[in-house]
Amino acid sequence: xxxxxxxxxxxxxxxxxxxxxxxxxxxxxxxxxxxxxxxxxxxxxxxxxxxxxxxxxxxxxxxxxxxxxxxxxxxxxxxxxxxxxxxxxxxxxxxxxxxxxxxxxxxxxxxxxxxxxxxxxxxxxxxxxxxxxxxxxxxxxxxxxxxxxxxxxxxxxxxxxxxxxxxxxxxxxxxxxxxxxxxxxxxxxxxxxxxxxxxxxxxxxxxxxxxxxxxxxxxxxxxxxxxxxxxxxxxxxxxxxxxxxxxxxxxxxxxxxxxxxxxxxxxxxxxxxxxxxxxxxxxxxxxxxxxxxxxxxxxxxxxxxxxxxxxxxxxxxxxxxxxxxxxxxxxxxxxxxxxxxxxxxxxxxxxxx
Length: 353
What we know:
Elements: E1 6-7, E2 11-13, E3 19-21, E4 29-30, E5 41-44, E6 47-50, E7 55-56, E8 58-63, E9 77-82, H1 96-99, H2 101-105, E10 111-112, H3 115-124, E11 129-132, H4 141-153, E12 157-162, H5 168-174, E13 180-184, H6 190-197, H7 201-213, E14 217-224, H8 232-246, E15 252-256, H9 271-283, E16 289-292, E17 300-301, E18 308-313, E19 316-320
Parallel strand pairs: 9-11, 11-12, 12-13, 13-14, 14-15, 15-16
Antiparallel strand pairs: 1-6, 2-3, 3-4, 5-6, 7-10, 8-9, 17-18, 18-19
């Protein structure tokens, strides 16, 4: 397909027809005729253009828990979209077939869908939110930005599932229209970010703190990979950072790694490692630590009295017992973004989406 062209936002013109992109932490300086690290922003005769305004490569209706977001309208639907491309090249990417398509095959695929149509589809499917996900949404910023504006007008929430490698300028512009974000904190070691991702840890930490400060609901995910980021001391450092800089009410999702992409030689993460990480997180003061990518419960309990608040079966809500955002047993306020009314499970034991 032909590549839709739209002049990019958040860039500055330099001498000799070069431009500096100020969208993500790479801040690429791009010469005429070349593209940035993401391979979807191109300098054409001294002006920067996005190549991914509208060619959506993926559309699905997902449970919001799949993002994963457990404290943001639990049990609701998220209309999920993506374009091709990413500003990272993680060797363990789970969606590498679409995220690395422009980098590895010099292809930008997808079907052109106008922002108005995305919002219309979200409403027709009964979705509570639109999630920009699967690949890195920062790289299709202009597209997501214009969809987000329309989504808010239609009463829909906006979600970023992101690697957190955005600039302060991008966040300042977008945060009034962003309601929630799940941020991948892939490791807590500078050298690991540099070696395996080609990025800078501090930029991600700065984005996390900025999102929190701006009032966006934030949950954090760490994919625990054997031999790369599974050392207990590193997991403890992540937990301490979340408690200290983001707050103990910030949910931490610890996900199991399965061999994929360029790391087919590694084993899956042992369940014992995930349980240890969960214990470390709770021991450091986090109130909500969830284990993902395993067949197990992911229930939410009151951190004060232990009362069951949300019962989950996979991605489905089997019981939601919060009362106006509070524990029905002890009255403790539970941080999150909740529906107007809590609900009891249906007679069959599942609240299906």
